[in-house]
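Hey,
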Amino acid sequence: MAGSTERNRPSRPSRTGTSRVARIAAAAACASLALTACGSTKDTASSGGGGGEGKVGVILPLLTSPFWQSYNDYVPKMAKSEDVDAMKTVNSNSDPSQQITDINNQLNQNVKGLVVAPLDSAAISAGLDQAERKGVPVVAVDVAPEKGKVAMVVRANNVAYGEKACDYLGKQVKTGKVAQIMGDLASVNGRERSKAFRDCVKDKYPKLKVLEIPAKWESDTAASKLDTLLNSNPDLKGIYMQAGGVYLAPTLQTLKSKGMLKKAGEKGHITVISNDGIPQEFDAIRKGQIDATVSQPADAYAKYGMYYIKAAMNGKKFKPGPTDHDSEIVKLPSGILEDQLPAPLVTKENVDDSKLWGNTVK
């Protein structure tokens, strides 16, 4: 999720594993029966320009994060530039079972391709199987599925996210307690960022002690658990937020409420690094409220999502290796190909760089 990113649900009672599996299974069964009335979808963006290969469905994971709002805005623009006939985007509203229904609804509209940002790395396989049975290629954006067929995964290197955060905090903090506000561990993004940060600190910065906050991409959860952690650890020196679009506001609000929001350079400042590269993070860096972020390329996610789905609809194949857009295609253990797009570190030194997508959105 990204955005990094994948789920940012409002606070609500937790669902048991059994009920969640049952809901996803029900959605998959609904898809198998082609019952489009089993669930509703929400159209959220204007359609793109026309290509010659047929219509393309675009499914979003959520729209409560500024990162995904920006991606949503880029979709019709990039569809037009890549000559792809993209339909109005569909918002799965942070619900993995709804996302399976959304995929089925798009397939029943006879789309010839799908660009999907999966909410759950495992659950998405039910939707991918439906698409494969209908011969419809799929490009996954932001999250790699654990299984199922996709033509390409368009994603930044999430291991590098965790490592960059580790290196930045390790060089700034030197010694003491640091916290990582984690994403959903049902998502490969949350798992990779968390493990990479944890392993890097252990190997390279043993004088740091990592405290962990499992927050599931939920802003309310992040706020309440950070508040609790600070009560027992008022000497915290650093924070790694795995998704600024979800965690920035609650983190700043919590620090402010405790009188711990000190500007960079001031005594007591807690060093904060994030992931996403949204305009709000850039503003926070300029104000000295946070120190850095890793810019997850919302614009390039949209652009290359369209590029690869058009290629897939035309039967084009790719191999691992460097690309012509400063990235590298790698083969994942599952055999799926992933185009790992660059995601630069942003600090006060380069926060005003006009090439960063976060400086181009209004």
